[in-house]
Amino acid sequence: MAASGAGDPLDAKNGEAPLAQRIDPTREKLTPAQLQFMRQVQLAQWQKTLPQRRTRNLLTGLGIGALVLAIYGYTFYSVSQERFLDELEDEAKAARARALARSAGP
Predict the structure, then answer these.
(1) Angle 34-12-9 (CA atoms, 0-180°, nearest 5)?
(2) Residue 66: alpha-carbon gap to chain centroid
(3) Are 16 and 10 in contact (CB under 8 A)?
(4) pTM of whole model > 0.90?
(5) Which of 14, 61, 72, 106 is a good FRET partner for 54, with 20 to 30 A between their CA atoms?
(6) How many Cα atoms are found within 13 Å in the side-chain-facing hemisphere of 37?
(7) Are the C-beta atoms of 5 and 20 separated by less than 8 Å?
(8) What is the rounded CA–CA span in Å between residue 1 and residue 95?
(9) 51-76 tens-digit pLDDT
(10) Could you report the per-residue pLDDT of 13-41, keeping only the tens digit for each?
């Protein structure tokens, strides 16, 4: 009887394919052909997911850029709204001038 994962592509009992076994290439001695095949499979998986990853990265970058521009714009807007401080400062100067006029008066 063959070991599970090696031999028949379908399990005779329930008709399912055996699960792939995870292999650590640093511990197990693999032939150069097996290592080359592993690299080919990894490259194929990477190339298959590359467009999705690129799209997600682009959307994430655009989202972060939009957030930065929104914060930057809001900062400019809020700084431009600080004119009321100038008005308060003008009123304070006028009040000081009135106080000086009263104290120097008759």
Answers:
(1) 25
(2) 13
(3) yes
(4) no
(5) 72
(6) 7
(7) yes
(8) 102
(9) 999 999 999 999 999 999 999 999 98
(10) 676 777 777 777 777 888 889 889 989 99
The Cα–Cα gap between 62 and 106 comes to: 69
Place of tokens 């690129």: 54
Q: Where are the alpha helices (DSSP H) in the chain?
A: 32-80, 83-104
Q: Is 15 left (phi over 0), alpha (psi -120 to 50) or beta?
A: left
User: d(Cα 55, Cα 32) in Å, to the nearest integer?
Assistant: 35
Instruction: Write phi, then psi, for 90 (nearest 5 degrees).
Output: -65, -40
Residue tagged 């521009």 (tokens): 69
CA distance 102 to 98: 6
8's tokens? 């028949």
**CA–CA separation, 19 and 17 (whole Å):** 6
Cα 97 to Cα 48: distance, rounded to the nearest angstrom: 77
